[in-house]
Amino acid sequence: MATRALLLALGPGVALGLGRFAYALVLPLMQATWGLSYAQAGLLGSANTLGYFLGALFSHRLLGWLGYRRGFFLALLLQGGVLALTGAGGYPLAFGLRLLQGVLGALVFVGGAALLMALGGTGRALGAYYGGVGLGILLAPWFLWGAETPGAAFFRLGLGSLLLSLAPLMAWGVLKEPPPPARGEGSLRPILPLLLAYGLYGAGYIGYMTFVTTAVGNWTLLFTLLGVGALLTGVVWGPWVERVGGRRGLFHVLLVLFLGSLPPLAQGLPGLSAFLFGLAFLGVITAITQAFRALLPPSAWPRAMGLSTAAFALGQALGPTLAGLGAEALGRGEGALWVASGLLALALLPAWPQRP
Question: Which keywords does this chain's UniProt record carry (predicted)?
C-alpha cells in the first residue's frame, strides 16, 4: 500500500506542485518579459484556481463517466502537455491554458485520492498522497534552473511533469474503480463555519504562494524549504489532530499558517516563513477531514467533502486577484502578502474552537 501511495502521490506532485505553485517561480520572468502588472499576474493565478474550482465541481461526474483510473491518468498526462505550452504565446494563451491546467489538476487530485481510498488506503497512506504536493514544490526550482524566458520555464515544467507522470503508470494493474458515492442524510449545519474558514484559507494561502517570490526573492531557497515543510505535514499534524480533535487542530494549523505568512517574517526571515508555511498549508486538509468525521454522521461525509472542495476552490480562485490588487495598492509585492495574511486571519475567526 505504501508503494502505491507513493506512486500515486506523484499525481498531486506534478498537477499542483509543478502545475500550480511553480507559477510563482516563473512570475518574475513573466513580469520582466511580458511587462505584467501585479493585477494581471493575479488574474493568471486566479485563472488556474478557477479551473480547479470548475474541475472540482464536475470531477466525480466526469471521472465516473470516464472511469476513475482512466480519467486520472488521462488528466495527469494532458496537464503536462498543457503546462509545457503555457509560455509559448503570450498573456491571452497563458490565461486559457492556466484555466485548463486547473481543471485537469482537480481531476488528478480528486481521482487519485478516490483510487487510493478504493484500495482501503489508511490515513497514513492518504497523508503520503497529499504530501506529494511537497515533492513537486521541492523539485520545481531545479527544473527551472537556468531558464531565462517564460516559454523555456514552462516547457521545462511541462517536460518534468510528463516524465514524473510515467511512474504512477506502474500502479495501473493494482488499481480498482471506487464504488458509486453514497447519498446519505444528515444536516451540514454543524460544519458551515468550518466551510467559511476553509474558503478563506484557500484565498489566503494561494495569495502567499503566488506572490512570495515577487515580494521576497531568493526563490530556490524558499521553494526548497516550502517543499521540505510540506513533506513533513503528515508526521507533524496527523498525530496532533488525532490528539486535540479536528476543529481545535484546524485552528492550530491555521494559526501557524497565519504567522508564517506575515510580511515582516517573510522579508526578515524568509527561510523560516517558507518552512512554517510549507509545514502548515497541507495540514488544514487533515484537520478539516477529522472535524467532519467528528461533527457529522458517515452518511453526510461525501456531501461535506464535495462542498468543502468547492468552497476551497472558490477561495483559491479569488485569492490571487485580491492579493494582486493589494500589491497594486502599495506598489510592491509586500502588499500581496498583507492581503494573504489578512485573509488567513479572517479564517481563524470561524475556526475558533468551541467548548464541548
Answer: Membrane, Transmembrane, Transmembrane helix
